[in-house]
């Protein structure tokens, strides 16, 4: 049971994370366009992109993606807990391990 439960959690966690990353990237791109009046850099590592713009875009994107992924995985863990009555083994605290 724990093996199947672990696989379900892994798939659920990955799906939540990927969805969150895609939504965060879309939000950052849209926000960047609105804030700067320019399209976001396609590749901030490209030497043709000004360094301050590349750094700003990388910081904003990293923060948004990291935050969105963390929030999505917290929600996924909460849903998993409500559905199964326990946290996944990777997240379980003492006394809550299946």
UniProtKB/TrEMBL annotation:
Membrane-spanning ranges: 54-72
Keywords: Membrane, Transmembrane, Transmembrane helix
InterPro entries in the record: DUF4235
A Pfam family recorded for this sequence: DUF4235
Domain of life: Bacteria
Protein name as annotated: DUF4235 domain-containing protein
Species of origin: Nocardioides agri
């Amino acid at each position: 049971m724990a093996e199947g439960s672990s696989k379900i959690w892994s798939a659920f966690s990955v799906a939540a994370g990927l969805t969150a990353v895609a939504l965060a990237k879309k939000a950052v791109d849209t926000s960047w366009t609105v804030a700067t009046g320019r399209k976001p850099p396609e590749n901030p590592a490209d030497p043709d992109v000004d360094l301050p713009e590349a750094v700003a875009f990388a910081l904003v994107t990293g923060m948004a993606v990291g935050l969105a992924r963390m929030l999505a995985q917290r929600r996924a863990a909460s849903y998993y807990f409500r559905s199964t009555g326990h946290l996944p083994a990777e997240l379980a605290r003492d006394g809550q391990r299946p």
